Amino acid sequence: MHAYAVQDARGMVKLDAMENPHRLPPELQAELGRRLGALALNRYPDGRVNDLRAALAAYAKMPDGFDIMLGNGSDELISLLALACDIPGASILAPVPGFVMYALSAQLQGLAFHGVPLAADFELDEAAMLAAIQAHQPSIVYLAYPNNPTANLWDDAVIEAIIVAQGRQGGLVVLDEAYQPFSSKSYIDRITRHGHVLLMRTLSKFGLAGVRLGYMMGPKALIAEIDKVRPPYNVSVLNYECALFALEHSEVFAAQALDLRAQRAMLFEALQGLSGVTAWRSDANMILVRVLGEGDRAAQTFDGMKAKGVLVKNVSKMHPLLANCLRLTVGTAQENVKMLAALKESL
To answer: Whole-model pTM above 0.70?
Structure first.
């Protein structure tokens, strides 16, 4: 194993981590600063955290009769799910390539992880997924919607078949909608239709990556069981006050997401007209591209872009299906111009 490495982005156009590139307007920065400065940092987090749970439930339009659980980012929720399901014979299953924390959480908890390869076009392999569920009877099946790093949505009927199969054998399905602000669809209706489905989201892609706040919705009884393994005070007073402030100004973040979706469309169009790469359609704030040609073209292109001051993510070694692939975060209009120029010059 190796520790999670964060690339040094000082002095770079940082487009490697799917962050919202927009900062708060100055007047909101000042208002938030005053609010955070008045907090009682000498006290443990209090009942105000429940105000955030209620605000998130309203923002996400959580159905009546369901509950919401908070985590220090989605990463903590994924770890807590592995901990809650750690019984003899338990395992976790997910399509691959996918978010690395699904496999890592299983490994750290001593659970088996079963990765089911996607099809060559990054669609779900329905037959392989259903066979794996029957063979391994996993405690949890993760389905990211849209997926990371491929950024695509999967077929509704295939997802429904997987949910039904996993419910039939008594396991959970976790729908991970981390990139929901940029997606054309949501599966929040699935938690009302299936009692074994949990829906997970994060405020990182909303625009608060530095705040570290993830949330998970599901049936009250199910959330109550998973909540038993949550550490006390896992969300700090600074985290929840920042999140509450952001939700009070959600229109600012909605406008930012709208801008990034427009930038994504322009970036995809430009990439389609660029010889030397293949780009895939995206429902997230990133675009996956494959660098064409012989040899380790992704590494060469990544190094060339980095030398020109643009930092993206080289995902070519994550899985064989991602050979020679780079993941490009959608930035501001100015950042995207610089990224395209660096990409062209580095191919």
So the answer is: yes
